[in-house]
Specification:
By secondary structure, this protein is an alpha/beta fold. The chain has a domain at 53-273: P-loop containing nucleotide triphosphate hydrolases (Rossmann fold). 35% of the residues lie in helices and 16% in strands. The chain has a nine-stranded mixed sheet with strand order 3-2-4-5-1-6-9-10-11, with helices on both faces. The protein has a two-stranded antiparallel ribbon with strand order 7-8. A hairpin with an 8-residue loop joins strand 7 and strand 8 (297-298).
Length: 352
């Protein structure tokens, strides 16, 4: 007779009747909580980008300074607005281990039109009446931040590793408010910046320890998505140019295996999206072309590209889309570029 040790077999073993009952329970839950299906932040692209459902992980990868934080911040902001407008109970959790909470909330105020992030960070309020109006609106958004505040000492900051983050989310859900609040979505920026987790056994080789850390953090993120019954959106760092699989192409959007240090995240995440700022590789105002491309790329200062690299369980994979960012961090489809490219291809849009 096998020894199951401390594991509870009833928690992991499902025959068909038990499995069917679990499916029915989940269907009932989703029917009552349809708002927990997290929509892509840009409405014009929701026909191609599938919702991220509870228990699922979406990973956003990009090289340094290619808009990961801009994108995940905008997505969290849109999710909070839509949750608030739905009138449903719930909270959006935002975790950032690099930017201070003050910086993150200034970015939220900027998206609402209170001013540019640069102005707000330096204490410049050009329109006090508009600032108060936006501050009131943003203050009502159901967002809870987990991160560092200005002046926090290194000892406290070092405690913000993944094991403790999960405990903090549980605290927010069960104890922070007067009543328990469901978590509608978790946004984490970013997995490579998480402090070393002392609950992970260190290895003698630093590279092996680092890979183990990322793998364990990835496992904990996926368990968190299931435990909190919500979608989790995670940023990840892409490789540098010389190691990037698309480095020799005109469109240098990171590929499937381009997450830095490990392939584990790409293998296990449910959805994988890649971001790219053309201006980081080409001069703004220049026109780029390639013999294998039926269209040319006009490099804009405020243009980002997003590509679906992985949509587990769905056929919409491989297409990329141009997006425009305004000075406040808001995003929309670059319709002029997309319409031009669609007119030159038989697929109706950019593919590479």
């Amino acid at each position: 007779m096998s020894n199951t040790g401390k594991i509870n077999p009833q928690a992991f073993v499902f025959d068909m009747p038990k499995g069917m009952a679990a499916v029915r329970d989940n269907q009932t839950f989703m029917a009552e909580n349809a708002h927990l299906a997290l929509q892509f932040p840009i409405p014009e692209l929701r026909w191609y980008f599938h919702p991220s459902y509870p228990g699922k992980q979406t990973t956003i990868q990009a090289q340094s300074h290619h808009g990961k934080t801009n994108f995940i911040d905008y997505w969290a902001h849109q999710a909070a607005q839509e949750l608030s407008e739905s009138g449903r109970k719930g909270i959006i959790i935002k975790i950032n281990t690099e930017d201070s909470v003050e910086m993150q909330i200034s970015a939220e105020l900027a998206k609402g039109g209170a001013g540019t992030v640069d102005d707000l960070q330096t204490g410049i309020i050009r329109n006090p009446e508009q600032y108060i109006k936006v501050e009131t609106a943003v203050g009502s958004l159901p967002i809870v931040f987990i991160g560092e505040s200005m002046g926090m000492d290194d000892g406290n900051a070092a405690e913000l590793y993944m094991s403790n983050i999960a405990r903090l989310i549980d605290f927010v859900r069960k104890e922070y408010f007067a009543e328990e609040m469901p978590v509608a979505a978790i946004f984490l920026d970013y997995i490579h910046a998480l402090p070393f987790d002392p609950e992970i056994k260190a290895r003698t080789n630093i590279e092996a320890t680092r890979r183990t850390q990322i793998m364990e953090d990835e496992n904990r993120i996926r368990r968190a998505a299931k435990y909190f019954s919500c979608p989790v959106i995670v940023n990840a760092q892409s490789k540098q140019d010389e190691a990037l699989s698309t480095n020799g192409q005109m469109m240098k959007i990171p590929g499937f295996w381009d997450i830095q240090e490990t392939s584990y995240i790409s293998q296990h995440t449910d959805f994988l999206y890649s971001l790219w700022f053309p201006k980081m590789h080409y001069p703004v105002g220049s026109t780029q072309s390639h013999r294998d491309m039926p269209w040319s790329l006009k490099v804009k200062d405020n243009q980002m590209w997003v590509k679906v690299v992985k949509h587990k369980g769905y056929k919409n994979v491989g297409q990329s889309f141009p997006i425009l960012l305004d000075e406040y961090g808001n995003m929309q489809l670059d319709k002029d570029t997309y319409t031009y490219i669609a007119s030159t291809t038989t697929t109706g849009g950019p593919q590479k």
